[in-house]
Design goal:
The protein has 4 helices and 2 strands; from the N terminus they run ββαααα. With 89 residues, it is mainly alpha-helical.
């Protein structure tokens, strides 16, 4: 259950984590030299899209692009190792 208070434009909330999650969170905050809250905010920004419909549209555009271009090297899927050794990508 979250409790919320407005603090300087932020909403204060309380969450429960496992000991392992908290250990990893503290370690990441130390590695970045930031507060734990900054790591949590960054994780939310990365994992929870602001515009989920826009994200879906970008995903669909990316899928449409798949297979539209010719590498000019033949069957890259089956000959990948040989081609990668010969061609500089």
């Amino acid at each position: 259950m979250a409790t919320c208070d407005m603090v300087a434009g932020m909403i204060r909330t309380q969450i429960s984590l496992t000991e392992e999650q908290m250990r990893r969170l503290r370690a990441e905050a130390r590695r970045r030299h930031v507060a734990i809250a900054a790591v949590v905010r960054d994780a939310v920004d990365r994992m929870v899209p602001v515009d989920p419909e826009g994200r879906l549209a970008r995903w669909e555009r990316a899928l449409q692009a798949a297979g539209r271009f010719d590498s000019g090297t033949g069957d890259v899927a089956s000959d990948h190792d040989a081609i990668a050794g010969e061609t500089r990508w």
